[in-house]
Amino acid sequence: MAAIAYDILTRIIRIVRSLPGDQAVLGTAGYSTSGAGVGPYTTTISANGQTWKAAFGDNTGTAASGLGYTVIGKGGTTGRTPGAFVGLFVGATATRVAFGTPRDGAPCFIAVVGGTEIKRGVLNDAGQLVFSSVATIDEGYAFSCTFAGGAFFISYGVQDAYTLLAVSFNGTTFTMGIDAFADVQEHNLGTGYTDEADAQPTGGNVAYDKTKNVYVTTGFYVRNYMVGEPPFEATSFERNFMASTSSNGITWTATYDISENAEGIAGPRFTNSSVCFGKGKFWAITGVKHVGGFAADYRCGIAHSTDGKVWINVQLPNAVADGYSSCIRFFKAKATSDDEGFFVAGGIEFLGFDVPVVTKLWYSANGTAWTHHRTDDGARHWVLSAVGKRVVPGDPAQKFFYL
Question: What is the pTM of this model?
Answer without folding.
Answer: 0.87
